[in-house]
Specification:
- The chain is α/β, with parallel strands linked by helices.
- It has 2 domains: about 150 residues, no CATH class; about 120 residues, Glycogen Phosphorylase B (Rossmann fold, 3-Layer(aba) Sandwich).
- Helix 8 links the parallel strand 6 and strand 7.
- Helix 7 runs parallel beside helix 8.
Length: about 300
């Protein structure tokens, strides 16, 4: 959650607070050559070295210091400051739900279940929570097994100025950046390859729409497509109009939202659904799943 952490840090600084961002540093990890060894040396950095560093850093800090955990997945480190002032920001509990067998389509390995249980034991030591949506707060209370001392919903803000732009101007900017003709409009999707983003579903919906007479291209901004997603594109009768775009800069992303004919976001689950808010802020119509928190 680096982006979210930066947002919080900047907000606290603007309010006049002194802010330090603590995170594990690569020490042993950087000496490994193979990915397997890097993984295990990385665990030493995170779960042995970093806690020792935190204990040392805690000694001179005043008692009114606030420790802000930017994700509940940082639960393993919460016991280090559980007796001090703290707040835990909760985004989504999809990994916890998968580990608990609540989403059988997305199975989790034994070690994955163990790690998620460790995370849960950690954040259960917390007393103060901020959730990014009502849905996330419901899931937090479900996994806590009770309502904590403080549990509030604070919706995410936007980390850029997503604003309406003149549509011809926005489409021209997108077309120039992507090397495509966008003058007549396009369907836009923004998201990564996580299973719940349902990118294959985006292509399937697009195929169905095109088969019923639609003729706009589909622009999918995000990570490079997985083999499964690429296969879905190749199998499409309209594959020449399906475009995967990676490495899109912020200015082009803002223009893409502002110039899109519609933003398509059939996500299966979300903690907040940032892209929906971004598209709406840019004045773009949104078609999304009829599930919280997208609704």
């Amino acid at each position: 959650m680096p982006r979210y952490a930066r947002m919080l840090s900047e907000a606290f600084i603007k309010k006049g607070y002194e802010v330090e961002m603590w995170a594990p540093k690569e020490r042993f990890h950087r000496f490994a050559r193979s990915q397997f060894i890097k993984k295990w040396l990385g665990y030493i950095d995170k779960f042995i070295i970093f806690p020792l560093e935190v204990k040392i850093k805690l000694r001179p800090l005043p008692s009114d210091t606030l420790f802000s955990f930017t994700d509940q997945a940082l639960g393993p480190w919460l016991p280090l400051v559980a007796s001090r002032r703290h707040v835990i920001h909760c985004h989504d509990f999809l990994a916890q739900r998968c580990a608990a067998g609540e989403i059988p389509e997305n199975s989790v390995s034994f070690t994955g279940k163990w790690y998620q249980a460790w995370i849960r034991r950690g954040y259960r030591r917390g007393r103060n929570f901020i959730s990014v949506s009502k849905k996330t707060r419901e899931e937090l209370h479900h996994f806590l097994g009770s309502i904590p001392q403080c549990s509030e919903v604070v919706y995410n803000g936007l980390n850029q100025d997503f604003l309406p732009l003149p549509v011809p101007e926005a489409r021209a900017a997108v077309g120039n950046a992507l090397g495509l003709n966008m003058e007549q409009g396009y369907i836009l999707h923004v998201g990564g390859n996580q299973w719940y983003k349902n990118r294959s579903g985006v292509v399937a919906i697009y195929d169905a729409w095109r088969s019923n007479g639609g003729n706009l291209p589909l622009i999918m901004i995000g990570k490079a497509p997985t083999p499964k997603l690429e296969a879905a594109r190749k199998a499409s009768l309209f594959k020449e109009d399906v475009h995967f775009c990676q490495g899109v800069d912020d200015a082009t992303l803002r223009a893409a939202y502002a110039g899109a004919s519609v933003f398509l976001f059939p996500s299966l689950a979300e903690g907040f659904g940032w892209p929906v808010a971004e598209a709406m802020a840019a004045g773009c119509p949104v078609v999304t799943t009829n599930e919280e928190p997208m609704t």
